[in-house]
Structure formats: C-alpha cells, structure tokens
Amino acid sequence: MELEKTNQMNALFDFYGALLTVKQQEYMQLYYGDDFSLGEIADEFNVSRQAIYDNIKRTEKILIEYEEKLNLFKKFSETNAIIDQLEEYVTAHYPKDTAFKAELEKLRQTNDEE
User: Fold this and answer.
1) Which residue of 38, 79, 84, 95 lies most exposed, with the fewest beta carbons within 10 A?
2) Burial grade of 27 (CB within 10 A; 0-12, 13-18, 19 or more)
3) pLDDT values of the chain reduced to their tens digit, one per residue, 114 residues
4) Helix/strand/coil percent split, the chain, to 5
C-alpha cells in the first residue's frame, strides 16, 4: 500500500467519514487507520476477504467523489498554506508582534475545526 494513498484516504476519511455507513467507517478505520490486513478485517467481521476488498474500494471511490464535488480538503490545505505564509511573513517582519501571532493561531485553530 502506498504511503501517499494511505495519507490521502486518511485525510478524506477525516473530512467525509461521517457521511459513510457505520460498516464503511469501521472497515476504513481498520484498514487505513489501524493498518489491519484484509484478512484480519474479514476474520473480525466473519465475511470474505473479497467482500472487505470490494467494500473498501467502493468506499475509496465514494470519498474521492465527495472531494471532487465539495473540495473541503483542498480548501483546508490551501487555507493552511496561506496561514503558513502569513506566519513566515510576520516572523520575518514583525518578530515581536505577539498579538498578530496569536490571531494567526486562532485562524489556524478555526480552520482545523471546520
């Protein structure tokens, strides 16, 4: 399993996981979050390895489709990049301005909560 794909699925699961069925959530959490094998998940739920594989593949597709339509992760990432740039600018040009840094931290926390 590619690390990049795992990171992508974990990020999309964080954003859209609540929109999935309980079973989809459980399978994705075990497979991507807890690094269980397909066989281990199949044993846990008394189903075939193929059933787990099919469900995970369908769920991956659903998560990708949600992101294509809603772009929540993309917007989150873009906002964090802007906040990073602002923090660098403030550190370079206004290193003693703790109020400005505090406001940027509030902005980052707000973005993380959404």
Assistant:
1) 95
2) buried
3) 588 999 999 999 999 999 999 999 999 999 999 999 999 999 999 999 999 999 999 999 999 999 999 999 999 999 999 999 999 999 899 998 899 889 888 988 888 877
4) 85, 0, 15
